[in-house]
């Protein structure tokens, strides 16, 4: 609340403070505290941040956008609040997420704050507690679905393009998966859009896996991957890993998928379940007898990499970590779910139960852990490493579409920033303290890809793209008055 007040009162000072103390403040502006702020949003509400667009604005969304005081918008983060972190449907209290993500766009990626627009689309909520909460600030009705929902979203997407042009980036954030995959498929060929939970997460996790090869001493193609959770994050990551391996091995994506397995709420995804699976799960339905739970799947599949993306806190039990450690010298374990309460295990649990052998990263931060005289520093496998740099790269190249090769390029840039000093501490990501430099490299790789693919609208192509990215970054300094 104090930081929000500061952001309102003196934006430049807020960003100076955030940039200079990024590791300390990220857990407040972002996960886990942003999750708590969303849960308590109605009762801690002071002044509105961001733009709320509700079902009642149908037919007038363009006018609503025109009410926003800034004209030159480059990045919009939009949610409908139905899957906020691993906390479920928080209705329009989810506004904390677009606001928080865009603060990171400016602090971590150097996109000007005035060019950032947080949007929450209020189509109601199915959260009974909120509907009965006198401080709830949104529409008191069940969520609109079907045609009513898609018409509102379509009007929004059309109004965005009409008002801000072809180059405005729209980042879909924390939609429930039944809408997220459809929205991405519908708009990815006509608008500059990406889904952070599906694609940004995929890129950050791939970066961690690529970088971890230095610690496991085995190439990704030789690994076997098991996911707990087969939604946006799980299947998004799985697909990018398969794409990466297929390019490395000169093999088909179908072939590369065979070493990637996913468990959902009904157990291991196998061929006999195919008819009842949502489309995004179907590519992962491999031939295998049914397996009911995660521990059973670990024993049946023998994974080298275990990734948690189910939003189920403490699902990686002692037995799970021990099973991973019994067959792997260096089990690679990622507990991606946010906020901390939903993390599949803590860093302490991962290191203790694996007897200090796990390579561990998590979506929300954990303090370093001392185990038998050694200090283990885990890092955050969080899309916050990717989207600020990815967005900056799209902005500086004037890109008109997001292509999967840009996600690969972003992952490679991030993995390339991990130093020997990081590896020596057990880290598979670089420290957030150098995030602006990291973002400039990610932006440069993404922009380079945009130029290569003919998707860049800003010509001519700069000679030194890293320098171009660095010099385009917003910096919160006061002007000199004479
Ligand atoms: N670290 C990071 O950068 C990111 C982390 N996340 C985190 O990942 C989590 C999931 O997000 P997302 O993928 O978008 O969510 P989704 O709702 O799309 O997917 C959740 C998946 O978990 C499965 N699941 C739920 N309960 C269980 C259970 N008891 N056992 C096994 N599987 C279960 C669901 O199964 P079913 O399909 O059968 O319902 C579904 O496949 C969230 O906590 C989110 O915070 C997300 C994006 C980025
Ligand atoms: C990090 C993020 O995007 C999520 O947990 O949804
Ligand atoms: Mg998210």
Automatic annotation (TrEMBL):
<dbReference type="InterPro" id="IPR037062">
    <property type="entry name" value="Malic_N_dom_sf"/>
</dbReference>
<dbReference type="InterPro" id="IPR012301">
    <property type="entry name" value="Malic_N_dom"/>
</dbReference>
<dbReference type="InterPro" id="IPR046346">
    <property type="entry name" value="Aminoacid_DH-like_N_sf"/>
</dbReference>
<keyword id="KW-0479">Metal-binding</keyword>
<dbReference type="Pfam" id="PF03949">
    <property type="entry name" value="Malic_M"/>
</dbReference>
<comment type="similarity">
    <text>Belongs to the malic enzymes family.</text>
</comment>
<dbReference type="InterPro" id="IPR015884">
    <property type="entry name" value="Malic_enzyme_CS"/>
</dbReference>
<protein>
    <recommendedName>
        <fullName>Malic enzyme</fullName>
    </recommendedName>
</protein>
<dbReference type="Pfam" id="PF00390">
    <property type="entry name" value="malic"/>
</dbReference>
<dbReference type="InterPro" id="IPR012302">
    <property type="entry name" value="Malic_NAD-bd"/>
</dbReference>
<feature type="domain" description="Malic enzyme N-terminal">
    <location>
        <begin position="7"/>
        <end position="188"/>
    </location>
</feature>
<feature type="domain" description="Malic enzyme NAD-binding">
    <location>
        <begin position="198"/>
        <end position="451"/>
    </location>
</feature>
<dbReference type="InterPro" id="IPR001891">
    <property type="entry name" value="Malic_OxRdtase"/>
</dbReference>
<keyword id="KW-0560">Oxidoreductase</keyword>
<dbReference type="InterPro" id="IPR036291">
    <property type="entry name" value="NAD(P)-bd_dom_sf"/>
</dbReference>
